[in-house]
């Protein structure tokens, strides 16, 4: 079975894929897909509660990155949306903590997912601190 990330890559192959080329987007997408598959094992009563919340926040990281990238010529907007992505990433970690405390995921799985989320968070923080690296180049450069 192919991973979801590989399928997305195959479906969107082109010279430049915009935000999809960002490593932080790829890592956030992979994390969101891991979370999606793990939450399928949550009890039915969590379908519209914890499972829904953690899926939404993890997916929002990706959508905020995409929005920021498309509006990156406006540095304040870019920084604001990346900051939103970072907030959603932090929310995802909180929901992972609830999942662990509720015994829906094992400690090892929690550690793996938290590590992935922390890596995404560090990358987002770097983007916030150095937005100039992501802004479009001036046409005369």
Assign the structural class, choosing from mainly alpha, mainly beta, alpha/beta, alpha+beta, or little secondary structure: mainly alpha
Count, helices: 5
Strand content: under 5%
| Average pLDDT level | 90
Explain what you see.
The chain is mainly α and 141 residues long. It starts with a helix and ends in a 12-residue tail after the last helix. It contains 5 helices and no strands. The mean pLDDT is 90. It has one domain (19-131): de novo design (two linked rop proteins), CATH 1.20.1440.60. The radius of gyration is 16 Å and the shape is elongated. It has helices spanning 4-11, 23-39, 50-70, 75-101, 107-129. Helix content is 68%, strand content 0%.
Q: What are the defining features of this structure?
A:
mainly alpha, 141 residues, de novo design (two linked rop proteins), 0% strand
Brief sketch in words of this structure:
The protein has 141 residues and is mostly helical. The protein has five helices and no strands.
Topology readout:
Blueprint: H1 4-11, H2 23-39, H3 50-70, H4 75-101, H5 107-129
């Amino acid at each position: 079975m192919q991973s979801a990330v590989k399928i997305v890559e195959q479906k969107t192959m082109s010279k430049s894929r915009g935000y999809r080329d960002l490593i932080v987007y790829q890592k956030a997408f992979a994390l969101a897909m891991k979370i999606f598959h793990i939450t399928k094992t949550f009890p039915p009563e969590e379908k519209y509660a914890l499972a829904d919340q953690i899926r939404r926040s993890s997916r929002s990281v990706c959508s905020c990155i995409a929005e920021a990238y498309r509006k990156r010529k406006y540095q304040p907007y870019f920084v604001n949306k990346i900051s939103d992505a970072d907030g959603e990433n932090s929310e995802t970690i909180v929901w992972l903590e609830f999942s662990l405390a509720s015994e829906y995921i094992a400690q090892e799985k929690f550690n793996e997912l938290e590590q992935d989320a922390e890596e995404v968070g560090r990358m987002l923080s770097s983007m916030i601190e150095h937005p100039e690296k992501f802004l479009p180049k001036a046409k005369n450069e």
